[in-house]
From TrEMBL:
Listed GO MF terms: serine O-acetyltransferase activity
Record's protein name: Serine acetyltransferase
Phylogenetic classification of the source organism: Bacteria, Pseudomonadati, Pseudomonadota, Alphaproteobacteria, Rhodobacterales
CDD domains: LbH_SAT
PANTHER family to which the protein is assigned, alphabetical: SERINE ACETYLTRANSFERASE (PTHR42811)
Metabolic or biological pathway: Amino-acid biosynthesis; L-cysteine biosynthesis; L-cysteine from L-serine: step 1/2
Positions of the Serine acetyltransferase N-terminal domain: 14-118
Keyword Lipoprotein (UniProt): no
Amino acid sequence: MAETRTNLTDLDPVWTQIRAEAEDAVQEEPLLGGLIHSSILHHETIEAALAYRTAVKLASAEMSEQLIREIADAAYRADPEISLAARADMVAVRERDPACHRFFQPLMFFKGYQALQAYRIGHWLWSEGRRDLAYFFQMRISEMFGVDIHPAARIGKGIMIDHAHSIVIGETAVVGDNVSMLHSVTLGGTGKEEEDRHPKIGNGVLIGAGAKVLGNIRVGDCSRVAAGSVVLQEVPCKSTVAGVPAKVVGEAGCSQPSISMDQLLGK
């Protein structure tokens, strides 16, 4: 069994790169050696490292690190999609965030990435019917990272949440694949209705800092929402919206705005 796990690790290019970068970082900054060893180099798989990192971050007097790690380990064993999403999210951060220079940085230092991976475990708990424990995860993620994602929300792969402070994503929100959003984004409702009440964000969408998308509306694939906008109506695919309330001001400017991260209007 140990040999099989080693072979699988050798075939995991993301994890292999993370370990190589971690070893370099220890050489460059020995004072971080203990932290990097416990967080990355001590583990055989990326799943084990993610479970450990999540447990360290979310543990408190109310629930021990050991218990949270056992929950995270169970989630990764039960649902391989969580691991695939973690890798896709890491690649997204590395490719799109100019402040990210190594693959191991999101795992170690970036709260947007860490919060998203913890949410994915909470979402698994919700899907398994363990609602109260999922709410506990939501609470601790919000307290620890300043990111409040309801565990019932559905979020795709390849997500980049830059800076991540004050992100709010509601219960019935859906976020597609390869979406990028900046700090203080809200995907919220417009009242107290209990049915489907939150936005549906398409694939490849870029949502600028401070933007609010409210209600059960769709933001079409490969669109841009300008910083500070308040979106109350449907957004067509491959368009740019801006303003309060937001209006269509032009095309998206490129085929993949969430990857180019180009937020300048008029392009």
